[in-house]
Amino acid sequence: VQLQASGGGLVQAGGSLRLSCAASRSTFSINAAGWYRQAPGKQRVLVAFINGGGSTNYADSVKGRFAISGDNAKNTVYLQMNSLKPEDTAVYYCNARPTWSADYFWGQGTLVTVSS
User: Fold this and answer.
1) Which end of the chain has fewer CB atoms surrounding its CB within 10 Å, N or C?
2) Residue 59 contacts residue 45 (beta carbons within 8 Å)
3) Distance (Å, rounded) from C-alpha 46 to C-alpha 112?
4) What distance in Å separates the CA atoms of residue 61 and residue 53, rounded to the nearest whole number?
5) d(C-alpha 36, C-alpha 42), whole Å
6) How many CA atoms, within 13 angstroms, populate the side-chain half-sphere of residue 54?
7) How many Å apart are CA 13 and CA 113, to the nearest integer?
């Protein structure tokens, strides 16, 4: 099972990026997912989460700036990041649970760098 994260890059403060997390196999139907980030020297922390019913939760540090969403047809979860700040710089990871499992699976990280 593979989750492909993409969309990271270098952006200036105040800019926007959209991250994508797509399941590489059609049998991995995403039911719930979260985006985590890990800054250099820090622990990995949850940034945003969406459950099977579409309810979302966000870390206080990103509320009002980030939005998590899902596209069932594309089996993809997105993280729209607006008003980016240098402190948002981190490797972002997706973590998703398929409909047929209680376990969550990690995707590879995608690096987001926000310059001041």
Assistant:
1) C
2) yes
3) 15
4) 24
5) 12
6) 2
7) 9
